[in-house]
Amino acid sequence: MADPLLKPLTPLGSDTPASATIGPVTITEVTDTALASLAARRGQDISAAAKAAGIPLPGPGRAEQAAPYAAFWLGPDQWMIEAPYATHEDITAVLKPVFTEAASLTEQTDAWVRFDVTGDRLPALFERLCNVDIARHGAGFATRTMLEHLGCYVVIRTTGHISVLGPRSSAASLYHALTTAAKSAF
Amino acid sequence: MTQKNRITGGQIDRTRTLSFTFDGKSYAGHPGDTLASALLANGVRLMGRSFKYHRPRGPLSAGSEEPNAIVQLRSGARQEPNTRATVAELFDGLTASSQNRFPSLSFDLMGVNDLLSPFFAAGFYYKTFMWPAKFWEKVYEPIIRHAAGLGALSKQDDPDEYDKGFLHCDLLIIGAGPAGLSAALTAGRAGARVIVTDEDFRMGGRLNAETFTLGDQSGADWATATVAELAQMPSVRLMPRTTTLGAMDHGIYSAVERVSDHLAAPLAGKPRQTLWRIYSARALLTGGATERPIAFENNDRPGIMLAGALRAYANRWGATVGDRVAVFTNNDDGLRTATDLQAKGIDVAAVIDTRTGGPLLPGIRHLQGAEVTGSTGRLGLSSITIRHANGRSETLPVTALGVSGGWNPNLNIASHHRGRPVWNETLAAFTPGPTGPVGLTAAGAAAGEMSTHAALHGGANAAIAALSDLGRTATKPDLPSAEDAPLNLSPKWYVAGKGRAWVDQQNDVTVKDVKLAHQENFVSVEHLKRYTTLGMATDQGKTGNILGLAVMAELTGKSIPDTGTTIYRPPYTPVAMGALGGRSRGHDFKPTRLTPSHKWASEQGAVFVEVGMWLRAQWFPKPGETTWRQSVDREVLATRACVGICDVTTLGKIDIQGTDAGAFLDRVYANTFSTLAVGKVRYGLMLREDGIVMDDGTTARMGQNEWVMTTTTANAVPVFRHLEYVRQCLYPDMDVQLISTTEAWAQYSVAGPNARKLLQKLVDQDISDAAFPYMACGNITVKGTRARLFRISFSGELAYEIAVPTRYGDAMIRALMEAGREFDAVAYGTEALGVMRVEKGHVAGNELNGQSTALNMGLGKMVSKKKDAIGMVLSGREGLTTEDGLRIVGVKPVDPAQPLTAGAHLLGHGKAAIAANDDGWLTSVVYSPHVGSSIALGYLKNGAARIGERLRAVNLLAKTEVEVEIVSPHFVDPEGDRLRG
Fold first, then answer.
1. Are strands B886-893 and B960-967 parallel, antiparallel or unpaired?
2. A122 contact partners, CB below 8 Å, separation of at least 6
3. Residues with Cβ < 8 Å from B681, sequence gap 6 or more?
C-alpha cells in the first residue's frame, strides 16, 4: 500500500467520495474498485483460465458479477475486470499469473470515474441522459453510450442499481450532468 | 372586466378564476382556457395586426394552425414573441401583448400600409428593392424589418433550462383524438409499449369540441375515461403538451414537451421544455385534420373564423365570439356549428351554404346556393354581405361568422422523407400517400377518415396492424357507437369579387396575389410560395396552402394534384431555440477535462487555457508580476537554471501489447521500434498514408510485449482511432491489443539541471545516470507508491517524466514542489513549455500542420527505408523530396528589440510581398529569455542551406516587417549535452 506521503484524491478531487440523494435516487462516487482491461491475445482461448480464477467473461452487451471479480464486455475478446481495490490495488499484477502470455492486461483503475446510481425509477433519470433503453434491460446489461458528450459505460447491476463509468478527467462534468438530470426528473 | 361572452358549459374550471393582462389591461379567465378563449370570453376579438398590411386580426382557429392571433407572452427575460394565443394555456398572472402595431392595437399608424396595398402586391420586395444593391442590408432591410410583423426578442439570456431526452416504444401514437385514443387502448391492452403525444394540454382532440355522443357518453367524457384507463397502464406513457415535430431516420421522432409553459415560471430545477428523441418500432399518425376557409372579400376581420373553431370555443371553452352569428359552409360539418350554437342559445342569423339540394336545417335560416361576398366592421366584424342563389344581395348584421371550406388531413409528418400525398376527390383534400417514413401509418382524420366512427375503428385497426408487424397480437376493444356522417363537401375555394380575398392570412397573401404570380409565370408551387410568401412563417400555411394551390389550379386549368402537392418540413410547429440547445450552453456547452494537478494549480492562482476539452495551466503568476511575459520568462529561466515541473498528463497515452506489438509499431511509425530494448524509450514519427506527418511522440518498451505510446494532446483520440484502424483493418493478423490509458496516469515533467537530485529524494530506486540513462524507462516506486519513470526531454534539459496512478496526481505535484523547494523549483505552464520547445527546435502542432513531411521538419532520416511503414512510399513522392523544398529553420530578428509575429512570410530583400516571391513562413514565435529576443521556427525553401542568410519577415495582416537572420532551429544546447547529463 501507498506510503502516507502520497494521499489519494477521489476523481471529484476530495478525500472522500461524493454522494447526493435527489428524490428517489442516490448518486455516489465509487472509488473502492480496481479495474483492468483483459484482452485475449490473438488465437488464445482464455475461458478456462478465467473460469479457474473465478473471473466471469460475459458475452456482448453483458455484465456479470462474481466474487471477488466482476466483469463487463468491452469488445471482441475484451473485457473490463472489476475487483475490490483493497485487495487488488495492483490488479494487473494479480491477474498476470492467471493469464500469463495468453492475454494482455492493462490497468484501468484510475482511467475512469464510477458513479453508482441507486433507487427507484432509474429509467426516468437515464432517459434524460442517454439513449439506452434502461426499462427494457435488466440486471446484467452493459453498454457503451454517450452521456454528457462523453463516452461512458452503463452497467445495470440490478434494476435499482446502475453504474456509470466515465472518463476520470471529466468527473465533475459527469457528476453535474447526473445531479442536474435527477433534479429535473424528480 | 366581466367575461361578457362567457356562456354555459365547457371544460373549464369555473370554481377558480385566473387573472391575466393583454396589452396592459386586466381580464379574468379560468383553468382550461387558452389565452384566445379567455379573451373571446371577455369580448376581445382583436388580437393582432397582420404581417404586411397591418390589418386588424382576431383568431381564425382554435388550435396550432393559427395564423392571426400571434402575440408576445410574458415580459422581461422570459418574453417570447410570435406565440399563438389559441394554444397558450392560461395561468394566473399571464401577461400578453400584441405585436406589429404602433402605437396601439386599435390605432396602428402602420395601417397606412393597407391603403398603399396596390404597391405591396406579390413580388413587391423583389421588384422594389433591387436597386441599388448596396442599399439592401443597410437601408431597405431594416425598414422592412421594422414595418413587418414579428415580435421582439428580449435580448436577455433565457433564464430557463431545457432538457433533452430519449424515449423508446413499440408504438408511437401522434395525436390523442378519437383515432389516437382508440389506437392507444388497443395497443395498451395488448401490453405493447405505447407513447401517446398530443400538442394539447387536454387529450381528446375534437371530442372535446363537439357535442355528439360516443355510446351513452359525451365525446369529452369518453375521452376522459379512456385517458384515465390508459394512465393506469404501466406500458403506456401519455404525453400531453407534447408536439411531435417530425420524422427523423430509422423510426426516430422528435417531440417537444412543454413542461412548464402553463406555469408562471418553471419549478426549481425543472426544465421549461424537453426535447425528446423517440425511438419507435412503429408510429401512427392520428393528428386529425385542419379546417380551411373559403376566401371572400375582406374575409379577415376579427370575428370571422373557421366554423369548427367557432363551435369549439362555445362547446369546449364556454365562450362565444359574438351574440349574433352566421355560418358560411360548403359541407355538412359546417352545419354543426349552426346547430350547436343555436342549442347554446346564441342567435344564428343565417347559414350561407354554397350547395343546393340537400335537406334544410330545421329552425335556422338556411340559405342554399348562396355565398358571402364581403364584410364590414372597423376593428371587428359588424356585418356580412350575402349573394343569394337568385343573385340578390343582402347585408346581414352579425358579429361572428364561422367559415368552413372543408378539412385538410394533418399529413405533415407523413410527408417527411418526401412522402407524396395523394388527392382524395371526396374530401377535396390531400391524404397521406404510401411513400412516407417507413414504419409510419396514418389513421382517423389524418388519413381522411372524417367521421368519429371511422376514426375510432381506423385507429384501432391501425394499431392492430402495426403490432402485427411486430409479431404481436392485439384485439379490437369494444368501441362505442358514434356518428358516421359523410362530409358531403362540394368544393368551393373562393368567392369571385373585386376586393382583396385573403388566402394566407399570416402572410397577407390574397387571391389576387396568386393570380399575379400566375400572370408572371410563377406557376410551380415552389415558385408560388417564394413569390407570394404563401405558406411561410410560423403557421407554415396550415390553413392557406391548399387554398392557394386551388386558386392556381383554376388559373392553370389543371386539377389540383396536377398543379402540385404541398409537403412539409419539420418542425410541425415552431420550436424555441432553447429546446434545441438543451443544457449545452454557456459553461455547460461542453464537458471539461481537468488535469490531476488542477486543484493545486488553482490554489497557486494559475491562469488556465482551454486545450480541446482540457483546462491546462498556462502560467503561474507570482506576486509582483504584472504581465504574463514576466511569469513565463521566470518559469523558463528557473527551469533552465534549476528545475521546473509541468503537468503533461494531457498527452495521449496508448497501451500497446501483444506478441506483434513491436512489428505493429514498425508499421505505424516511420522509424524502427522492434529493435528497441526493454526499458528504453524512442522518439517516433507517425505518417499518414500520403506521407505527411500525422503525429509524433515517444514510445516506451515497458516489457517484452508491453509498450506505452505517447501522442500529442490534440491527437490523442485521432491517433488511437488510427491505430485501431490499422490493427483491425490493415493488419488483422497481427497479435496486438490497444487501450487508452491517458486518464489512468498523472504524469509530470521534471526538467532542469537539478531534476535528478529532486526526483532522487522521492524515488525509491537509484536513478543515477548510470542506472537510469537518457531514454531509459521503468516501473519504480515513489515512497512506496507504484509509479513509472521515463527519462525523456522536451525542453532540452536533463529531464524526466514521472507517472503515478491518477488518484495520487494531486499528492505528487505537492510532493514534487515540496522536494524541490531546496532547489528553487518552479511550476511551469504551457507557455513556458512552448518557449522551451521552440528554443530546443522541437516541432509541435504549428509545424505538424497536416501539410508537412518529415523532410520538411528536418527529420527525413527518420523515415526508415529498411522496412515498410504507413506513409513511407508516398513520402518519397516527387515534389515532396525536392532538394530546395521547405526545411525547418530557426529565425531571429537582426535587431533583438524587434518582435516577430507568427505567420509572417519570409521574403528576400527587395522582393515585392507577393505569393510568387514567398520563401516560407514563421510557424511558431516566442520570446526567448535565453536568447533575449523573439525567436521563431519556420519553414524556409532550401532552409538548411541558408543558415546565416538575412531575410525579411513580412506580415501583411499585422502590417509589420522585420529583418531577420536564419539560424539553426536549436537555440539552446544544440549538441544535447544537457539532456544526456
1. antiparallel
2. A25, A134, A159, A160, A162
3. B698, B699, B700, B701, B775, B776, B777, B790, B791, B792
CB of B271 within 8 Å of any CB in chain A? yes
Taking CA atoms, what residue in B is nearest to A37?
B739
pLDDT digits (tens, 9 = 90+) for B117-133: 766 677 666 666 666 76
d(CA B938, CA B944): 11
Q: What are residue A162's DSSP bridge partners?
A: A117, A156
CA distance B375 to B370: 15
Return the C-alpha cell found at B75: 415580459
CA distance B277 to B296: 43
pLDDT digits (tens, 9 = 90+) for B355-399: 999 899 999 999 999 999 999 999 999 999 999 999 999 999 999
Please tell me the distance from the alpha carbon of residue A109 to that of residue A91, in angstroms, as a whole number: 8
A42/B658 touch (CB, cutoff 8 Å), yes or no: yes
Share of chain B above pLDDT 90, in %: 89
Contact status, residue B171 vs residue B190, Cβ threshold 8 Å = no
Instruction: With beta carbons less than 8 A apart as the criterion, state whether B248 and B101 touch.
Output: no
Confidence (pLDDT) at A2: 43
By the 8 A CB rule, do B386 and B393 touch?
A: yes
Size of chain B in residues: 981
Q: What distance in Å separates the CA atoms of residue B941 and residue B937, rounded to the nearest whole number?
A: 13
CA distance A147 to chain B (A): 10
pLDDT, tens digit, for every residue of B538-592?
A: 899 999 999 999 999 999 999 999 998 888 999 999 999 999 999 999 989 999 9
pLDDT digits (tens, 9 = 90+) for B168-207: 999 999 999 999 999 999 999 999 999 999 999 999 999 9
Which of B626, B335, B598, B594 minimizes the C-alpha distance to B488? B335
Residues of A whose CB is below 8 A from B741? 106-108, 111
3-state helix, strand, coil split of chain A in percent (to 5) is 25, 40, 35
Q: How far apart are CA B836 and CA B853, in angstroms?
A: 23
Burial of B876 (0-12, 13-18, 19+ CB in 10 A): middle
pLDDT-derived band at A1 (thresholds 50, 70, 90) equals very low
Contact B592 A172 (CB under 8 A): yes
What are the tens digits of pLDDT across the range B79-126?
A: 999 999 999 999 999 999 998 777 788 887 777 777 777 666 776 666
Q: Ramachandran region of residue B25, left (φ > 0), alpha (ψ -120 to 50) or beta?
A: beta
Which segments of A15-165 does DSSP mark as H helices, in order? 47-52, 91-99, 122-126
- Provide φ and ψ at B311, rounded to 5°: -80, -25
Interacting residues of B409 by C-beta distance below 8 A, sequence separation 6+: B288, B289, B427, B429, B430, B431, B432, B442, B445, B446, B447, B448
Q: Which residue in B272, B806, B814 has the most chain A C-beta atoms within 10 A of its own C-beta, making it the best mutation to test that interface?
A: B806
* pTM tops 0.90: yes
How far is residue B137's CA from residue A26's CA, in Å, rounded to a whole number?
55
The answer to whether the CB of B440 falls within 8 A of the CB of B469 is no
Q: Contact B684/B743 with Cβ under 8 angstroms?
A: no
Longest pairwise C-alpha distance within chain A: 50
Distances (CA, A) of B456 to B176, B453, B888: 11, 5, 78
Q: Checking DSSP bridges between strand B440-442 and strand B273-285, what pairing results, if any?
A: parallel
pLDDT, one tens digit per residue, over B645-672 is 999 999 999 999 999 999 999 999 999 9
For B814: left if phi > 0, alpha if psi spans -120 to 50, otherwise beta; the answer is alpha
For residue A181, the chain B residues in CB contact (below 8 A) are: 163
Query: Cβ(A113)–Cβ(A167) under 8 Å?
Result: yes
